[in-house]
Amino acid sequence: MQHAGQPLERHGIQQLSEQRMRRGDHPHLARQNRTKMLQSVATAVGVGKTHLAHALGHIACRRGRKVHAERADRLFKRLRAARLDHTHDIEMRRLIAVDLLIIDDFALQALDPTETTDFYELIVERHLKTATLVTSNRDPNEWLAALSDPLLAQSAIDRLQSSAWELIVEGESYRRRQKPTLTDRPNTPTEARR
Predict the structure, then answer these.
(1) How far is the C-alpha of 145 from the C-alpha of 20, rounded, in Å?
(2) Which of 88, 134, 141, 190 shows its CA 20 to 30 Å from the CA of 105?
């Protein structure tokens, strides 16, 4: 799996049972081999939306699918750089062609006109042809304000929502749960000196 960032093993992907996915115990996730889109919307940070997206990407890879996962800000920055070195068309064709495109942390920041156009083109070209998974801390209704062109934004978001499963992830941040406390004792003398 192509991943712009940390190795997949750090996300604990093995914890998802591939057998369970094949049996169809979770109907929405088991059907991800179809050409659909999945929006993962979390109203709080640190609840596992990226972890879940990468787990689905890993499962797709195991099934022989081509997958590309990247944070939205990095993706759009890379596409902007591709315009400068005249490889933008090649990059777009590559992203359109993958079986599963995972756009993580979408709409955390406002998109400029170039980024909005790139997002629109990706969604329109992939719509009903290949699977796209978008994670965001914002509700899709809030995405309109984050995109610079309202018409392109509405068109892209309409396509996403018309064929998407929306998965809302709620809960307390796992990062807060893992935060060390003053009562935690070091396991070794080396840790005690830190």
Answers:
(1) 39
(2) 88
Contact assessment for residue 170 and residue 47, using Cβ atoms and an 8 Å cutoff: yes
Extents of the domains making up the chain: 2-193
> pLDDT in tens for each of the 194 residues of the chain?
444 444 444 344 444 444 444 444 444 444 444 445 555 454 567 778 888 899 999 999 999 999 999 999 999 999 999 999 999 999 999 999 999 999 999 999 999 999 999 999 999 999 999 999 999 888 888 999 999 999 999 999 999 888 888 877 777 776 666 667 777 666 665 655 55
Pairing relation of β-strands 100-104 and 67-71? parallel
Distance CA 63, CA 96 (A): 19
In DSSP terms, 135 is beta-bridged to 40
- Tell which CATH architecture fits domain 2-193: 3-Layer(aba) Sandwich (3.40)
Rounded Cα distance between 149 and 173, Å, is 33
CA atoms within a 13 Å half-sphere pointing along the CA-CB vector of 182: 0
pTM over 0.70? The answer is yes
Rounded CA-CA distance 147/102 in Å is 19
Beta bridge mates, 166? 39
